[in-house]
Design brief:
Blueprint: E1 3-5, H1 7-14, H2 22-33, E2 38-40, H3 42-49, H4 54-63, E3 68-69, H5 85-98, E4 104-106, H6 110-118, E5 125-126, H7 128-139, E6 149-153, H8 167-172, H9 176-185, E7 189-196, E8 199-213, E9 220-233, H10 242-256, E10 261-266, H11 272-280, E11 284-289, E12 292-298, H12 313-320, E13 332-337, H13 339-345, E14 371-376, E15 388-393, E16 399-412, H14 415-422, H15 430-436, E17 441-451, H16 458-463, E18 475-477, H17 479-489
Parallel strand pairs: 1-2, 1-4, 2-3, 4-5, 9-10, 13-15
Antiparallel strand pairs: 6-7, 7-8, 8-9, 10-12, 11-12, 13-18, 14-17, 15-16, 16-17
Helix pairs in contact: 1-4, 2-7, 3-5
Length: 490
Amino acid sequence: MRFLLDTNILIPLEDSNIQLQPGLANFVRLAQEHGHPLVFHPASEEDINRDKNADRRMRTRDRLAQYTRLDGVSDCPWNTTETRPNDACDNAILFALECDAAHYLVTEDREIHRKAVSRNLGDRVFAIQAAEDFLRRLHETTSVQLPNIQDVPLHSITRLLSSEFFDTLRDGYSGFDEWFRGCARNDRRAWTYWAEPERIGALCIYARKENDDATGHGNILPGASLKLCTFKVAPDCQGRKVGELFLKQAFRYATDNRLEHIFIHGDAEKHGFLFELLADFGFAEFGRYNDDVVYVKKHPVVAPDDSTADLSAFEYFRRYFPHYRQDRSIKKFVIPIRPEYHRILFSDYASPCDPQMALFDATHTASNAIKQAYLCHAQLKQISPGDVVLFYRSKDEMSVTSIGIVERYETLDNTNEIVDRVRRRTVYGMTEIEEMARKPTKVMLFRLVKHFAHPPSFDWLTQNRVVSGNIQTIREIDDDAYQRLISHAA
């Protein structure tokens, strides 16, 4: 796989006076060790030549030779005589990606990320930490640890208020320290990820609200809702799906407490990545509160009736999570998964076969993100977005533990195409993917709904005619069998 490096990645790489982010240094190391070429676009040379720091300009230009310069690039049709030079450079780089000059682009430029989304290239553009995490998951899968999120009272972390983590929050809100201390006195709580002892890696302060005027202009959110007041992930923890893990915690909290809405205020310019993530999980712009945009996700207690709505089964799930369509028109499948993969894919599931998991408080421990991938060589072809998948942990527990909704399902036999689809969703490393790709491989992207409180065992499944025979490959079950399973598992 080739990675196209934007100018803002090349300059710190080649300027010894700029301290490298650990994630960038590790990304370059992994790319070089595992044979992923790092390339740059000729437009970056023009960008570098505009650098007003003459010494840095010369150092960067002299060292570019260690990377591959793209040749034969096409002129970008998006540029006109009125396009500003910096924008023209960005457009040329993004157009090269659209022309498949590389598999992925690595950039810290938020405007390029926004343009990529608008041109359906968002999935191929990485920030530094995301690119590093992508390669770590492919080549160092055993060393990638998913973070634990703890629910703590704010007063328990007041002692850390002067730490560097809170500096950007203070920069954006001059009265932040006083606000934080006031919240602590009122027993406000937060979800916290510890990067290491006594160092916060990510924080989400939350509050329950009743009939909240979310915009300050009479736009009431009726009933009980969850407000995400402060949402920050430290730079060295970005790219690890911590933001998605916080969202999973928020959905779980809102479901358990029967909250009808989840909302957040924020600066869409400063936090563009966050708002893209929110939109992917069903949040929509609701209005503005002073200078901030307000995003709201409907989180109805009762599943909405979609009989008159023009929503696909998957779009219904995305919009109304945790509710999903499960009527007779929706297919249901039981999917076997080996314990060693189950532990990674669903690491917040407390299996009786994994007693070490008892060391963690399941209520406060976040597992993998909501968006996942599953690979297999099953012969079954007819699985569609919105279908229900029930995961059966084989070998040891031999129970249906978890339920998810299919986002995408296809057959591939090219390693790079499989990697491109699963990206950072999968438990498989590059070697395993290469081995699987020797035969046509089913690639299923899905989103986890929940784990079951009472996982139906294999004996129960056979006694109640949900399945017959061993569960060794994906199999479809009829709606009556599904309803029996769900009634028992809930």
